[in-house]
TrEMBL record:
Protein name per its UniProtKB record: Citrate synthase
Keywords: Acyltransferase, Transferase, Tricarboxylic acid cycle
A Pfam family per the record: Citrate_synt
Pathway involvement of the protein, from the record: Carbohydrate metabolism; tricarboxylic acid cycle
PANTHER family cross-referenced by the UniProt entry: CITRATE SYNTHASE (PTHR11739), CITRATE SYNTHASE, PEROXISOMAL (PTHR11739:SF4)
SUPFAM superfamilies the record matches: Citrate synthase (SSF48256)
Family in the record: Belongs to the citrate synthase family.
Entry annotated with the keyword ATP-binding: no
Gene Ontology molecular function: 2-methylcitrate synthase activity; citrate synthase activity
Recorded catalytic activity of this chain's protein: oxaloacetate + acetyl-CoA + H2O = citrate + CoA + H(+)
Organism in which the protein naturally occurs: Leucobacter muris
Lineage of the species this protein comes from: Bacteria, Bacillati, Actinomycetota, Actinomycetes, Micrococcales
InterPro entries: 2-MeCitrate/Citrate_synth_II (IPR011278), Citrate_synth-like_lrg_a-sub (IPR016142), Citrate_synth-like_sm_a-sub (IPR016143), Citrate_synthase (IPR002020), Citrate_synthase_AS (IPR019810), Citrate_synthase_bac-typ (IPR024176), Citrate_synthase_sf (IPR036969)
NCBIfam families for this protein: cit_synth_II, PRK14033.1
Amino acid sequence: ETDAEIKKGLAGVVADVTAVSKVNPETNSLLYRGYPVQELAATQPFEAVAYLLWNGELPDERQLAELRARERRHRALPREVRAAIDLLPLEAHPMDEVRTAVSVIGASDTAGSASVLDASGTPEQNLERSIRLYAALPAIVAYGQRRRRGEEIVEPRDALDYAANFLWMTFGAEPHDTVVDAFNRSMTLYAEHSFNASTFTARVVTSTLSDLYSAVVAAIGALKGPLHGGANEAVLHIMDEIGDASNVVPWLDRALAEKRKIMGFGHRVYKKGDSRVPTMKAALDALIDHYGRPEVGELYEALEREFVSRKGIYPNLDYPSGPAYDLMGFDTLTFTPLFIASRVTGWTAHIMEQAASNALIRPLSAYNGPAERHVEGYEPTD
Ligand code: CMC
């Protein structure tokens, strides 16, 4: 085992095959089950994208109606989940809150709890668990934000589809079509991205024949970090620090001198720009018009121009989605939980794929600790 064989961060390693999505950095494209993500974001409700990720095909009208009916059955906040959230301090990070809530849902679903040997579930059970999580997450995220603001819970409304109902449960007001559209697009764009850190984590957990909920809880832990999902929250902190487009140059001088990473820029796979950015930037522009907040666009563009010209590193999806969620009225701390609500569809599609053609994921390591040595005074006693 030499250093040359080690791919630090598994960079460039192809770990398995997947039919869920394809990232092509050369053509700057991302396909979900063959469909370009921009086309899905422009034409499909998020429910149809979830169906596609799970089942491999877009739903027909009846299939979409059936998924929507199942989503409605599970979209109210489960009583035990609310009770668990209420026990947490208000200062708990929302990612920890959502991780805990998912864990409570898992522990409350007793199918397969008799023995670890049953826990990994049948394909039907796993699809049911996936739908249950996808349906419950909006209520969890919305309740979290309302609780922190000292507001009452808002019950779901049957007349509203997924995106509009999510906004309704968060803000207690019927959302404008422009906002629903931007939110729906963001959910589609965040849904899936091949073997990113959280998805790979979910697959590692699944590969031990553990259960779907455990895999999702672990994935949430991986998503929390600022090098992954936490970046959309971090983008807003940066924008707040800069304040105004005219401060971009001095702020960036200082940040780069301090060797800070500029959140919302750069990507392990895309080196020439993130395929999801133009679609989300268009949604952000629509929100800027809707809310009459041109200064948000000015700051966005000034920082992008300056950073790209200095470093040649392009924005990733978190760069436009951060300010978009801020304009919609989400608290900054709620941004990464929104990413969970979307990515749970991709995670669970990968979990089911991993389960269907499983091999335990267990790589090797090259040892670089002390050479073999012995405990002083130890005498072997045959
Ligand atoms: N700001 C400043 N410098 C950067 C940035 C950045 N955002 N991204 C990369 N670089 C520099 C980095 O310092 C390094 O420079 P040098 O060669 O002089 O040491 C060079 O570019 C290569 O970067 P790297 O960190 O080795 O590349 P990576 O492939 O490991 O990093 C990344 C990918 C996403 C971790 C990194 O670009 C980053 O930290 N970005 C900021 C956090 C962020 O926006 N994350 C969201 C990722 S996309 C959404 C998701 O999938 O969750």
